Amino acid sequence: MSAILLPARDANLSGLAALHLQCFPDEAWDSAALATVLAMPGADGRVVYGATADMQGMILDQCLGEEAEILTLGVSAAARRGGIGRFLLSDLIQRTRQSGARRIVLEVAADNDAGLGLYDSLGFQRDGRRRGYYRRKAGPNIDAWRLSLSLI
Ligand SMILES: CC(C)(COP(=O)(O)OP(=O)(O)OC[C@H]1O[C@@H](n2cnc3c(N)ncnc32)[C@H](O)[C@@H]1OP(=O)(O)O)[C@@H](O)C(=O)NCCC(=O)NCCS
User: Fold this and answer.
1) pLDDT confidence of 127, banded at 50, 70, 90?
2) Ligand 1 mean position to 38 CA, how many Å?
3) Is the pLDDT of residue 1 over 70?
């Protein structure tokens, strides 16, 4: 994998929004929503660019005190299964560890095999389910798994 990793706050917000829409068509964040997220206390993130400066992946997180939360993580459809998701998540784990936080948490849809596979592969544990947490444009709401990774 040849990729460039840059802070998300330096990324083009409309490009980030286009990638978010591709990854989460049922709950896409537009440029204004992304700007709001990036302006939250403790918010940070990284974006991966490919060889032709195409945005291939993104991760946004919020780290407050002892806990960091993954707000969103996605890889463009064309770049999936190439290691970018693991690269972004491993980088986040390293940054969070360096910050002194003790735990990373997130929610992921219970029908998201790719996301669950990625988090499982990096040692996240399943702490419980939230019923009907994710709304779908078509079909019933989907449960979320609450996941965490202890850094101590
Ligand atoms: C989930 C997602 C980020 C994975 O990104 P990726 O770059 O394709 O993942 P990687 O290539 O780094 O894969 C790392 C590991 O994740 C797991 N994984 C990735 N895709 C998978 C899939 N479709 N099914 C099952 N496991 C999968 C595997 O364990 C994989 O390791 P392996 O390739 O050695 O088997 C990507 O599929 C995506 O953007 N999906 C849409 C948005 C989303 O669901 N985000 C996560 C929710 S928070």
Assistant:
1) very high
2) 24
3) no
Mutation test residue for ligand 1: of 21, 47, 86, 88, the one with most atoms within 8 Å of CB = 86
Residues near 15 by beta carbon (within 8 Å), at least 6 away in sequence: 55
Region 45-72 average pLDDT: 96
Q: Is 49 a catalytic residue?
A: no
Quick check: helix, strand or coil at residue 29? coil
Active site residue 107: yes
What domains lie within the chain, and their CATH numbers?
Answer: 4-150 (3.40.630.30)
Pocket of ligand 1 (CB under 6 A): 23, 73-75, 80-86, 108, 112-115, 117-118, 121
Q: Round the average pLDDT of the chain to a whole number and report it.
A: 96
